[in-house]
Amino acid sequence: MNRQLLEQLGHLQDVYGSACRLPITMTDNEGKQLTASGSCGGSSVKVLAERFLASSHRAQILKDISHIQYPIVYQTEYGFKVIIAPVQAGRGNVSYIWTGPIIERQKRELIYHACGTVRDSAYIRLALMDIADTPEEQKQEILEKLSQMAGICSTMMQQAGMLNATERRLDELHRYIHYEYAEAYSTEKATELMREMLELEFSGYASLDDRDGRFRIIHTSGGSPYHSLDGCLFSPGEGFLGQAAVAGEARLWERIAWDRRTDFFAERGIWLKGLIVYPVKHHQRVCGLLFGGVVSDGMMSSHGVALGSVLAGAFARMLGSKHMEKLLHRESAHLPLLMEVSGALRARRDIEHMMHTLAEAVLTIVQGASVSVLMQRGQEERPSCVVTRGPEGDSTACKLEFPLLNGNDRMVGILEVCLNGHGINDGQRASLTMLALMGGLYLEDRLHREGQSDPHQSSGFPCTDSASALLLGLKLDNPLTSREKEVLEHVLQGLNNQEIAQTLFISAHTVKNHMTKIFEKLEVTDRTQAMAKIYAKDVRRLRLRA
Fold first, then answer.
1. pLDDT per residue over 478-498, tens digit each?
2. Ordered DSSP codes for 369-433
3. DSSP 212
4. H or E element in which residue 189 lies
5. Cα separation of 293 and 252, whole Å?
6. Per-residue DSSP letters for 465-496?
7. How far apart are CA 425 and CA 64, in angstroms?
8. Domain HTH luxR-type: where (predicted)?
C-alpha cells in the first residue's frame, strides 16, 4: 500500500475517531497495523487498546471472524468489547477497521475482576475507572459510522489498486512496444501480457491458415485446463471467435453462460462466462485473433479492455515487421542458388541435363515436393521430353504450373510442381517463377543451337496472346460451360485452386468440382495433361492456318 494512500486513510481515521470519541486503527487481514492508532478517547482508552489489542491478539480474533461482511461488536475474553468493520479492497483483499474498547455499565464489575489477573493489574484497573460507560444508543451510532468509513476506505483502496494496476500495465505495455522483452515477437508473451492486463483467467492466440481459410489456436495461457484449446480449428463466422474474425473489430461478451456459441469451449471442458476478442490485422486483413475469457462470475476490467486494444495493435505491428523480415530473408535466401543454377544451365551440353538441373533446383527450393519438366522438341504435337524428380505426387495434392518462356514470350515447356501437402510462401513462389523464366531462356537457346528452333517463330508449346484465345478453338464433344472455361483460363495462367476461388469469389471445393468435370470432358487425369492437350490443339490450329 503506497504512502499517499496511507496518509489519506490516516486523516479519514482521525475524522471518524473524533466523531466516535474512540481511537481507530486499520490492519491487514493478518492483524498487522496499517495506520497508527488515533489519540481520540483519552490516554486510558489508549492504554487498554494497546494492552489487549496488540497484533497477536488481533490475529487470533481475525481467525474467528474472517468471513464477516459488515461491522460487528466483538467481546474479548476480558469482557470489554471492540467494533470491527471489514474493508473490501478489491481482488479478494480485505482490511479491517478497529475501534474500542467499549465498556458497558452492566459489565464493568466483571471486567474489573477479570483484569485483576493480568500483569500490571493495578494500572489497568485505574485506566478502567477513567473510561466512561458506552450506552447502547452510542454503540449503534458507532456501528453506523464505522460502516460509512469502511465504505469510503473500500472505494479509496480499490481506486488506488486500479491506479497502481493501470500504471503497472502501462509500464509493461511500454516495455513490450519498445522491444525490451527478448521474446516480444512471441505469442506466448502477448497472450500472457493480455491475461494479466485484463485480469483474465485464460487467453490465447489463433492464427489464420491461408491454405483453407480457417483459424487455428496456436497457444493458450492460463494453465493446463485451457491447453485443450491448442490446435483447435474454427471457421470465420463460427461461434464467438469466428464472428469476431468476420466483424474485424474487438468484441466483448459477458454473462454468456447459456449462449450456445460457447459450445466451442464447452466441448473442451471450458464453461465460459465472459469473452473478449481482438482481431490482429496485417494490411487491413485479419490474420489472427487475440482472445481471453473468464469462467467465474467476475467482470473483466474496463481499464484493461482499453489497454488490450493497444496491445493487439502493437502485436499486429510486430507480426507485420516480423513477416517483412522473413519475406526479405526468403526472397534473398535463394539468390545464390539461382546464380549457381544459371551457371550450371549455361554449362550443360544437352536438353535433358538442363531439365534435370531445373528439377533439382525446384526440389532444393520446395523440399518434399515432386517436380516434372515437360518440353516439346521438333514438330511433335505432344511433349516428347519429360523429366520427373521427387516422391510420387499425390493426385489430390495442390499443383503449380510455371510456363517456360523464350525471349519472345513463347512457351517452350512447362515446369510443374506438386506440393504433396506442403505449403509454399511468397519467397519460394518468386524463386520458382524466376527459375522458370531463366530455364525457358536457356532451353530455347540450346534448342536454337541444336537447330530445332527459330527464335522468331513458335517453338514447343505455343503461348497465344491470352488464355481465352487458347480456348477459342477448343472443340469438344461435350463442350465446356462458361464457368468451366473461366476456371480453365485461370489454370492456364498458372493459378492454383485456392487462387482461382478467390478470383472468382467461389469456394475451393467448387473449383475442385469444376476441375473434375473439365478433366472428364478433356479426357485427361490432371492439370498438366490438360494444359498439354490444349497447347497441342493450338499447335495443330496454327499449322492449319499456315
1. 888 888 888 888 887 767 888
2. -EEEEEE--TT-SS--EEEEESSPPPTTS-EEEEEEE-TTS-EEEEEEEE-TT----HHHHHHHH
3. T
4. helix 187-197
5. 9
6. SSHHHHHHT---SSPPPHHHHHHHHHHHTT--
7. 66
8. 473-538
